[in-house]
Structure formats: C-alpha cells, structure tokens
Design goal:
Layout: E1 2-7, H1 11-25, E2 29-32, E3 40-47, H2 50-64, E4 70-72, E5 74-82, E6 85-92, H3 96-111, E7 124-132, E8 147-149, E9 151-160, E10 163-173
Antiparallel strand pairs: 1-3, 1-9, 2-7, 4-8, 5-6, 6-7, 9-10
The chain binds adenosine-2'-monophosphate.
C-alpha cells in the first residue's frame, strides 16, 4: 500500500483553508484538493507492507510520546513546478517544534529500516495540482489563523482518476486539544 505520515489539521483551520481555496479557484485553474484531504506531510513512505506499517506505527508512537500539540502558522502561498503547470500550496512556518517532529519521525523510521522520500522537509498544505497561474500578483487573500495540530496520522493513499483517496490507518495523539 502507498502510505505517508502527516499532521491532520484542526477543523477551524481546515474550514478557513476551504474558504481560501474557494477564493483561489476563482482566479486560477487547476485540480483543487477537497477540504477533507488537506494535511501536512511529515514523511512520504510510498509502498510498504504490513510489517513495515507496524514498524512505522511504532516509530510514530515513540516520537509522539510526551509531545504536545504542534503550532501551525500559515505563512503564504507557494508553488512547486512551472507556473503553467504547478502544485499550489499554503506554506507553514518551519517552527522548531514542527521541524524537530519531522526530523525525529524520519530518524525513527530510518532506525527501523523504513525508507521514505528524503527531500528536505518544506512544511506545506497542498491546495491544488495542475495549476496554471495567471500573470502578475494574485489579489489579497485572507489567510487562516494559526492553530495547533494534535494528530499525527499514517495515511493510506489510493490513487484514482478522480484524485487520491486518503484513509487514516493509525493516529498518534500529540497531547491535548489546544485550538
Ligand atoms: P505534495 O502535496 O506536495 O504533493 C501524499 O502524496 C502526500 O505526500 C502529499 O502531501 C505529497 O506532497 C507528499 N509527498 C512527499 N513526497 C512525495 C513523493 N515522492 N510522491 C508523492 N507524494 C509525496
């Protein structure tokens, strides 16, 4: 199965990002991600089997133990790829608690021999893919308020012609709710 570990977003922030994406959808063309699929990836594992998923869960539990919620502070829009065909995302400030969480998770996965995409961690929430950006600046937009993530989740990703379907396989709690 195709998997990744990500932070789930608090409901208020998710709703605010849906509003932001709605504004953007009026200004750029692309395949917008449905709100229920928003997440912030910490490690993309790709294809793994049952044994590796058990080890990944153990790594998540080890890293989540004793850790509190992680602050998510949206910083602005960014893109991967060329302006005529890019991925459009909402960037999140790489505060130490978030960067350390990703680093510790990746180290705990590596300790168990689990491979993952080793690209440097750039915290972001993908809003749309196959985006064609207009020339010039996008008009001012309302960005979501900072909030705290309380769940680190192992997701199974099933790719379909209509888009990816994400199913939570395991959730590690990051302390109490503090939104
Ligand atoms: P993206 O949103 O920037 O594409 C599920 O695909 C999640 O894992 C997405 O958040 C995706 O980031 C991320 N991801 C990281 N590395 C990936 C890779 N090599 N292939 C697919 N998705 C990857």
């Amino acid at each position: 199965m195709r998997t990744f570990v990500a932070l789930e977003l608090p409901d208020t922030m998710r709703a605010e990002i849906v509003d932001l994406a709605r504004c953007l959808a009026g200004r750029v063309t692309g395949r917008f991600v449905p709100g229920e699929n928003y997440h912030l990836t910490l490690a993309f594992l790709g294809e793994i089997g049952e044994a590796e998923s058990r080890d990944a869960i153990a790594a998540m539990d080890e890293v989540a133990a004793g850790r509190g919620p992680v602050r998510l502070h949206p910083t602005g829009l960014g893109t991967f790829g060329k302006p005529s065909d890019c991925t459009l995302w909402l960037g999140v400030e790489p505060v130490p608690e978030l960067v350390v969480l990703a680093e510790e998770l990746r180290a705990a996965l590596a300790d168990r021999g689990i491979a993952f995409d080793g690209k440097p961690f750039r915290p972001h929430i993908t809003l749309a893919r196959r985006v064609r950006l207009p020339k010039g600046e996008l008009a001012p937009l309302a960005f979501p308020e900072p909030a705290h993530a309380t769940r680190m989740t192992l997701f199974k990703s099933t790719l379909t012609p209509e888009g990816a379907i994400y199913k939570p396989l395991y959730r590690a709690e990051l302390g109490g709710a503090e939104n």
